[in-house]
C-alpha cells in the first residue's frame, strides 16, 4: 500500500488523537477492541470518536476447493488505513488520562494480531486470551497467550486456524527500565511454544530484551541473534 493519507489526518472533534504511522488493514473487531479499551480506561468519562470505518470486504474461499467459480464469500470487513490517518479522537479529559487511554489502544489484547518471530511455520497470530491472568486485559513481554494461526507457510507442521500457545517477545508498547531507558519495537511479535513452554522453532528472528532471561525464558534468549 503506497502513499499517505490526505483526508482524515487532522483533529476535528476532540483535543487528543491516535494517528497511524504505517499502512494497515484494521478489522472491525480490532476497531471495537480499541474503543472498548479506551472507554474502560477513562471510566466512561469524556468522549471518544472513532474516525475510521470498516467498509472494505475481505473474501475467503474454503480450503480444498477447485479453481474458478469466482470469489469466495465475505469473511470480515476492514478499514484501509494509510500513514497519517487519525484513528481515534478523545476530548473532555485531562492530558495524562488521554495519553494513558490512547496508549492502551495499541497494547496487546484479545483480537490483536501479532507476527511470529521464529521459524516454526506460522507467520501471523491473533490473540484469543492471556494465560494466568483473571482480571488483566492486556499482555506484556514475557506473557503466555492462547492464539490462533491466521497465516502459515504451506507444507509445514503448523496449519492455519490451529490454536496454539505463544510467548510475547516484542511489543509496540514501550518497555521502561529502572535506569530510564525506553525500548519500543516496530511490531508485536511472539514465539510459538508447546504445552511445556519449549519453543517449537529452532531460530528466533530479530532482537529481544534481556528481561526474558529473568522470566526463566533462557532458551529463547539463546536462540535470538541479538539481546538488548
Quick overview of this protein structure:
The chain is an alpha+beta fold. The chain contains four helices and 15 strands.
How does the overall form come out from the CA principal axes? globular
Strand order within the widest sheet?
A: 7-8-9-10-13
**Percent helix range:** 10-25%
Work out the number of β strands. Answer: 15
Q: How much is the average pLDDT?
A: 84
Summed up, the helix count is 4
- Main sheet summary: 5 strands, mixed, barrel
Unreliable parts = none
Radius of gyration: 19 Å
The termini sit apart by: 31 Å
Global structural class: alpha+beta
SS strand fraction = 25-35%
Topology as a string of helices (H) and strands (E): EEHEEEEHEEEEEEEEHHE
Compile the SSE list and pairings.
Blueprint: E1 16-19, E2 24-27, H1 28-41, E3 47-50, E4 56-60, E5 73-81, E6 86-91, H2 95-105, E7 113-116, E8 122-130, E9 144-152, E10 163-170, E11 175-176, E12 182-183, E13 189-193, E14 207-208, H3 211-214, H4 218-223, E15 226-227
Parallel strand pairs: 7-13, 14-15
Antiparallel strand pairs: 1-6, 2-5, 3-6, 4-5, 7-8, 8-9, 9-10, 10-13, 11-12
Helix pairs in contact: 1-2
Amino acid at each position: 500500500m503506497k502513499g499517505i493519507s490526505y483526508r482524515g489526518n487532522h483533529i476535528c472533534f476532540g483535543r487528543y488523537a491516535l494517528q497511524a504511522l504505517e499502512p494497515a488493514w484494521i478489522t472491525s473487531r480490532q476497531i471495537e477492541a480499541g474503543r472498548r479499551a479506551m472507554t474502560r480506561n477513562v471510566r466512561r468519562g469524556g468522549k471518544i470518536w472513532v474516525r475510521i470505518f470498516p467498509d472494505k470486504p475481505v473474501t475467503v474461499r474454503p480450503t480444498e476447493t477447485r479453481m474458478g467459480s469466482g470469489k469466495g464469500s465475505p469473511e470480515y470487513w476492514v478499514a484501509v488505513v494509510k500513514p497519517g490517518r487519525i484513528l481515534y479522537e478523545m476530548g473532555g479529559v485531562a492530558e495524562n488520562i488521554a495519553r494513558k487511554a490512547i496508549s492502551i489502544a495499541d497494547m496487546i489484547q484479545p483480537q490483536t494480531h501479532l507476527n511470529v518471530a521464529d521459524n516454526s511455520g506460522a507467520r501471523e497470530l491473533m490473540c484469543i486470551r492471556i494465560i494466568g491472568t483473571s482480571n488483566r486485559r492486556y499482555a506484556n513481554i514475557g506473557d503466555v497467550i492462547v492464539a490462533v494461526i491466521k497465516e502459515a507457510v504451506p507444507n509445514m507442521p503448523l496449519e492455519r486456524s490451529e490454536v496454539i500457545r505463544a510467548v510475547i517477545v516484542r511489543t509496540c508498547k514501550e518497555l521502561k527500565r529502572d535506569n530510564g531507558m525506553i525500548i519500543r519495537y516496530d511490531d508485536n511479535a511472539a514465539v510459538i511454544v508447546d504445552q511445556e513452554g519449549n519453543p517449537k522453532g529452532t531460530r528466533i528472528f530479530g532482537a529481544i530484551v534481556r528481561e526474558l532471561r529473568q522470566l526463566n525464558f533462557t532458551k529463547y534468549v539463546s536462540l535470538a541473534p541479538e539481546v538488548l
